[in-house]
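Person: Please comment on this record:
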Amino acid sequence: MTGPLQIVLGTISALFLIVAVVFAYRAVRAMVRIIRTGQPDATRHGPVGPRLKTLAVESLGHTRMLKWSAIGAAHWFVFVGFYGLFLTLVEAFGEVWNPAFHLPLIGEWSLWNLFVDVIGAGTVLGILYLIYRRQKDHPRRQGRTSRFAGSNEGRGYFVEAVVLTVGICILLIRALKVSSGLTEAPTWSHPVSSLLATVLPDSPDLLSVVAFVKIVVSLAWLVVVSRILNMGVAWHRFSAFFNIYWKRNDDGSVALGPLQPMTSNGKPIDFEDPGEDDVFGRGKIEDFTWKGMLDFTTCTECGRCQSQCPAWNTGKPLSPKMVIMDLRDHLYAKAPYLLGEKTASETAPDYDVLKPSDEQVWASGYARIEGTNDAQAHRPLVGTLEEGGVIDPDVLWSCTNCGACVEQCPVDIEHVDHIEDMRRYQVLIESNFPSEAGVMLRNLENRGNPWGVSPSTREDWIKDMDFEVRMADGPLPYDVEYLFWVGCAGAIDDRAKKVTKAVAELLHTAGVEFAVLGSGETCSGDPARRMGNEFVFQMMAQENVETLNGVFEGRVPGTRKIVTTCPHCFNSLGREYPQVGGEYEVVHHTQLLSQLVEEGRLTPVTPVDRKVTYHDPCFLGRHNKVYTPPREILDSVQGLSTQEMHRCKDRGFCCGAGGARMWMEEKIGKRINVERTEEALGLDPDVISTACPFCITMLSDALTSKKQNGEAAEHVEVLDVSQILLRSMAPAGTPGTEHGAEIGTADDDVAGTGSAATGHGPQA
């Protein structure tokens, strides 16, 4: 069935294939060379088995994409269609020459035919749905709230058009084989094609033409993406596999929890004796590791990270997506200089001629510097518009480290690690950071706490307890099960001290033997590390490890137990201190209290007739996946009715205090804590509950402001789950237990049962 038409189309297809393969080979080789200019990172290579398992689960199972169910399902069909139907492209080369051509060996195998029909139809329907969603969520309709704000829309349209065209061609080719009598496969094996065949002519030549269109569109796509190495919406189809395989954690978990130690040339920096050529943080694009560069390359510009970012959602310039896009575009523009193909001039150009571009107007107003030129070679990684910076300082310092971006990214990009590495360079090398944070750092160095108060005040809360609180003095006696790490907030902040007292009282009631360090405790170092001052963190962590090792002297692993109320301390002590030699079994107070309730050692007996909504602390929830214990505690309290906020658990919205933001002024956009409190108040709760001292501070401040403006009822309160549990253990009839109360003003009323604000409390 080969005629002149087939010969012409077949010859063109073969020549085009050669051109496309050459372009693709050169593109992949260039991309690999560029990524290999990054710093080494030997932590990514093993073990192979778990990494392959994670790759299979995340790619074939689409586990991360299916967090957004309908979009994830549609993308799964497009994904499977791209790879699973690759053989239909091979078959098309034969069909151009001979319309009756079938793949060798597979031939007209019924199961293969059914697979192609179902997945082909699924690909067409899937991409149509994704096109619909892109238009429905388009910035021209939703403005800044669109997750596509700042994305390269033209590139997205191109990819969608290619997928749709190829999918339609697959179905048309198969339908034309049916209508032209060129297949003997049973009808049940091609249900969609058989239906289409009823409206198509008997035309083998038309089949060859459609096959040619499929080939040309596919190869044109390959040539285009080969010429645009920073076209992440297309390249992620290949690079995502490698990015998932080489993700930070070989157990498949996301890159949250502990920050990684500062490294230079692939090795951790020894702060006591750093090397002369050690690179502190990331000050230039080439300072990132090869995995960082692979991250930048893999960004699909889908905007899931942006849609979940608390900074972006409250009008700040930080978009995790655009941070990665800007780093990617700068990397590939600067590539000839990194590869030694070009040499930069000795002096930097004048950047004051920059104008905001359409793509960048969504963020900080920066213009992308187009092309490869000396401007790219000299640009600082972080800098103002006048300095030609790739990332605006306001973008860098808006991050709360909440981890929403990392949690949502379908291709495992490690946004928080990259932002923190840039912060490290700004703090340690440039000494360029928000001035108010400098006060916090000085307080940490001089007084061992962010507030700068005397260390002796750490023991003040103990004076209000009506039982003896043990003080650790040397190695703990073996009858002491837990060291209670109170934390800076828990010992200093008045609101957090109530939580400390509540937890201590509950542990005492349950018969749990514990001790505290008192004035011997210092800050875990989390604010310094998240600020970017790794040196101060290392200093404080090593000091604390020395103290803790002394307390746990003689104890074997499994008996070195610490309980803490602060998720930041929980994360640092349990997951970051192993980096400096501190191995402990660290639990959050909600985990321990939930266990004690389950064991019957704590029994809530008094109903608390209140409506509660629970706010997930980021460093307890997303960073450490502790979602259930706080809710189990609330469920154990009789009379409570609980209702989840729309943004909860792994999609929880930050309070605004993380990433050392607690110690920086929030000058841009809406305050994050106000946004979160308004969301909680929308449920008309009596109590906004949480399990973090910083969350309590942020939510309480916003709630107080709302009350002053008449936007919140006076009886609404912010309580830690431990305070609610303690309230439920008060004797029946205690004021405040049935209908609750605001937090009591008396130091010994940590559960708030005696507040005058309640109808059951003392009356004036």
